[in-house]
Design a protein that fits this description.
This protein is of the alpha/beta class. It has helices at 2-9, 12-22, 105-110, 134-149, 168-178, 212-218, 236-241, 247-252, 255-258, 293-305, 324-332; strands spanning 56-60, 68-72, 80-86, 114-118, 156-166, 200-204, 266-269, 309-312. β7, α10 (293-305) and β8 form a beta-alpha-beta unit.
C-alpha cells in the first residue's frame, strides 16, 4: 500500500495538467463504462469481439451452482497484478461475459495486468439464505480467495488485486473491498484461509448502500434493494417498513456501512450527473437505481475517513482517471 500512497500523494500536479487537457468535457471510454445489465436475461452471453480468448475457461472455485470463472493471464516473467470482475444484473441475471462493459481486458493485459471474470449464484438460487444477497456476495468473496490461492500457478502477485463490476456487481465489489477480512485462518479449507482484502476497487454505477432509509434520503424515488433481503421485486415499501427490524443485516451487506479508515483506494463511475441539490424533490430521478447520488455520498464519507475516492460522471471536475481501466493501470502498476 505504500507504493499506492506515494502515487496518490504525487497526483496534485497531474490534476492541474488534467484540468487543462480535460476542459470540462466528459470523455466516455467506449470500453468498460456503460453497463447495460439485463436482469433475468435468458439468452446466451458471449464475450465482445474485442475481448481476447481466455487462457483458462470455466474454472470452478467451489462446488456451488455457477461458481466458475475465466482467466486471462498477462505475459510476464514475474508475477502480475490481477483485476477480478464481478458482473451486474441485480443479482438476478448477468454473466462473466460482460467483463468488457467494465474494463478493457486487452488494455489491462498489454499493461501486464491479468484479468479474471466470475459467475456466482443468483438470488433465485439462494432462497434458503437469510438474507438471500449473502449468496452472491460471499460467492464473489470466495472467488477472490480462490484467485489468491492460485497465485503461484497463475503467475499472479497476491498483493496487487483490483476489483471491478457494474451495478449489483459494483455493490458487491465495494462490499468486499470495505468489509473486514473474511479469511478463516483455522479453516480446513485452504481457500477459505486466504485473505479477501484487495489493493483497490473501481466500479460502474454502484449502489453504495442497501439501507432503504438512506436511499430515500439520498434519492427520494428509490425503489431498489428489497429483493436482496427476501422482499418481492415491487415491495420497497415493505422493505422500508421492516428496515429497523433487519438493520443489522442491512448494515452487514451495505458498502457505506462497512467503509472505514484504511480501506482501499476507490474509483466510482456514473453515466449521469448527480441530481441537483442531492434531494431530487424538484423532479424524480430517471434511473434511481444507478443514481450518481450514491457516489456523491460515498465519496463524502470516504473523504471524512481519509480513503482515496475518485468520483467520475458527465461534467465531473477534472478527473484524474477517465475510466476504470486507467485507474487500474496506474494503481496496480505503482512502484
Amino acid at each position: 500500500m505504500l507504493r499506492i500512497a506515494k502515487l496518490l500523494a504525487g497526483t496534485k500536479f497531474l490534476l492541474f495538467v488534467n484540468s487543462i487537457l480535460y476542459l470540462g468535457a466528459f470523455q466516455a471510454d467506449t470500453f468498460g463504462q456503460v453497463a447495460n445489465e439485463r436482469e433475468g436475461f435468458r439468452g446466451e452471453y458471449k464475450y465482445h469481439s474485442y475481448v481476447p480468448e481466455p487462457t483458462l475457461c470455466k474454472v470452478a472455485y467451489s462446488d456451488r451452482h455457477r461458481n466458475h470463472l475465466d482467466v486471462w493471464q498477462a505475459k510476464s516473467t514475474t508475477p502480475t497484478p490481477v483485476v477480478i470482475c464481478i458482473h451486474g444484473g441485480g443479482w438476478n441475471g448477468g454473466s462473466k461475459e460482460q467483463v468488457g462493459k467494465y474494463v478493457h481486458p486487452q488494455k489491462l493485459l498489454d499493461a501486464g495486468i491479468s484479468v479474471v471474470a466470475i459467475n456466482y449464484r443468483l438470488i433465485k438460487h439462494c432462497a434458503e439464505l437469510n438474507p438471500p444477497v449473502q449468496g452472491p456476495m460471499t460467492d464473489s468473496a470466495r472467488a477472490v480467495q480462490f484467485v489468491r490461492s492460485n497465485a503461484k500457478d497463475w503467475n499472479i502477485d497476491p498483493t496487487r488485486i483490483g476489483l471491478t463490476g457494474g451495478s449489483a456487481g459494483a455493490c458487491t465489489s465495494l462490499w468486499i473491498a470495505y468489509h473486514p477480512d473474511l479469511a478463516q485462518p483455522e479453516s480446513e479449507d485452504p481457500v477459505a484461509r486466504e485473505s479477501t482484502r484487495v489493493t483497490c476497487v473501481a466500479v460502474i454505477r454502484a449502489q453504495t448502500t442497501l439501507d432503504p432509509k438512506q436511499m430515500k434520503s439520498w434519492i427520494p424515488n428509490s425503489n431498489y434493494g428489497g429483493h436482496a433481503f427476501g422482499f418481492g421485486r415491487d415491495s420497497f415499501d415493505a422493505f422500508l417498513a421492516a428496515r429497523d427490524s433487519i438493520l443489522p443485516q442491512i448494515q452487514e451487506y451495505s458498502p457505506y456501512a462497512q467503509l472505514s479508515e484504511g480501506d482501499p483506494p476507490t474509483f466510482l463511475y456514473y453515466t449521469t450527473r448527480p441530481h441537483e441539490g442531492l434531494t431530487g424533490k424538484d423532479k424524480p430521478e430517471r434511473d434511481p437505481t444507478h443514481s450518481a447520488n450514491f457516489g456523491v455520498h460515498l465519496k463524502q464519507q470516504a473523504d471524512k475517513l481519509g480513503v482515496h475516492c475518485e468520483l467520475v460522471h458527465p461534467g465531473a471536475n477534472h478527473p484524474l482517471h477517465q475510466n476504470a481501466t486507467e485507474f487500474f493501470v496506474a494503481l496496480l502498476n505503482a512502484e
